[in-house]
Amino acid sequence: MKKKWRRRNYFIKKDLQGRYMFIFFVVIIAGIITFAIVFGLLSSDALTILYEQSKVRVDDTPVALLKQLIKAHWLVLISVGVAVVIFSMFLTHRVAGPIYRFERTVDDLIEGNLNFRVRIRKKDEGKELADKFNNLITTYADVLNETKELSDKIEKALGEALKTPQRDELLKEVMEVNRHLREKLEFFKTKQK
Amino acid sequence: MKYIFYIILLLFFFTSSYLVIEFQKEEPPPEDIALIVNEWRCSREELNRLLETQKVDYDSPYDFINSLITKKLLIQEAKRQGIDKEERFKDSVREFYEQALIKTLLDRKIASLNVQVSEKELNNYLSAMNSVVLLRIGSFNTLVEAENVTIDELKPKEILFRELSEDIQVRLLSLKTGHKLEPLRRGKKYTVIFVEDIKNLGTPQKVSEAERHRIRERLRRIKQEIILEEWIEELRSQASIRLNMGGNK
What is the pTM (predicted TM-score) of this model? Predict the structure, then answer.
């Protein structure tokens, strides 16, 4: 049975994913600080009675509950903050994974290898782009294959022409093949050097 | 990886800040502890401070310390029984909170009043105590009615000055014959008092200096109460008050 291919490295693009994980973490910190300020402002008129270490304390609510607030916020930061960082790693991996695959495929293309295709997981982003990109590679590969075949034909025809007296016929045939070749190459729109 | 490092750095910063606050030494060092009652520890400094503030109420420091120990034990026991979580206790705290607030406000208001009873006022009062006042009195449902009333609409009444309520006595002292008091709110009604005449029944009794001082203090207290009443009335007049009893009568 063929083993199912799985991408196990969830931290594949460290810089990109790390940046977003850090942003999410900072947003959590900003949320916590904003909550503390809003709570402090809204409860500034309230009075709180606390019994701590056998002492009764009566103080303005933000001051009286400062220690408890800090503790609660620290717990939120540790639990929710870290959970959000881990969650954002998985979330950004859905984008970072395809980007990584695209980069690998483009590297192969630069090397002249058109045999690779971008493979995107079920839940990853950029499936449409990957499909179009793969179609592009397939189209280019087909054109190049046909170009190779036509080139082979030209080479064969030229070889024949050197051996036979009916060169005019063969040269016409070579010109016809070359015309097809040009037609194939016309598919690519490039700037003339 | 630098971002992961930043996250770890922030976590470390917040954790260490929290730990510093959480484990700040609030309890005094063992050598400074003067009194321990179960989990409660009191430093020498705190005990001295408590002794200093409470010393007038106790014969000796030991009496105070004994009372403090009993107080702490009772508080701890009440806490152990969960009394502080009971609704009745919370109601008591609410009641105490309101009373303490009102008391502080009134104490401040009284302290801000510079109420004096002049020699003339005192003499007038002593002289009036031996007189009969001819009044015209009327009660009205609204302040407007009370303010617009004519003298003829009021009922005449002859009464000994000393039989009037203390606040009316003081109010009348500053009133000349033929004038009326500002309407006084009495429960749901407004009372208007018009002074027709004051008849002296004889020369006032001689009173000692100590008695004069006592009466002066009483008059001063009554005047303070009148000012407070007027101030509260002013607060009422400025406030937005609505009463909706629903189906109740």
Answer: 0.66
By residue range, what is the domain housing residue A147?
Answer: 126-188
Dihedral over alpha carbons A22, A28, A31, A32 (to 10 degrees): -120
Here the tokens at position A105 are 């495929």
In-domain check, residue A141 = yes
| Residues of A in Cβ contact (< 8 Å) with B6 | 22
A18 and B2 within 8 Å at the Cβ level: the answer is yes
Cβ neighbour number for residue A185 with a 10 Å cutoff:
12
Q: Which of A47, A54, A70 sits opposite B40 (nearest CB)?
A: A54
* CATH number of this structure's domain B119-238: 3.10.50
- Domain membership of residue A193 (yes or no) is no
Q: Is residue A33 part of a domain?
A: yes
Residue pLDDT, tens place only, B181-240: 888 888 888 889 998 888 877 777 788 889 999 999 999 999 999 999 889 988 988 999
Residues in B closer than 8 angstroms to A47, CB to CB, are 97
Which of A89, A114, A139 is the C-terminal boundary of a domain? A114
pLDDT at B11: 93
pLDDT at A6 over 70: no
Under 8 Å between Cβ of A62 and A71:
no
* Nearest residue, CB atoms, A51 vs list B3, B41, B79: B79
**B99 pLDDT above the threshold of 90:** yes
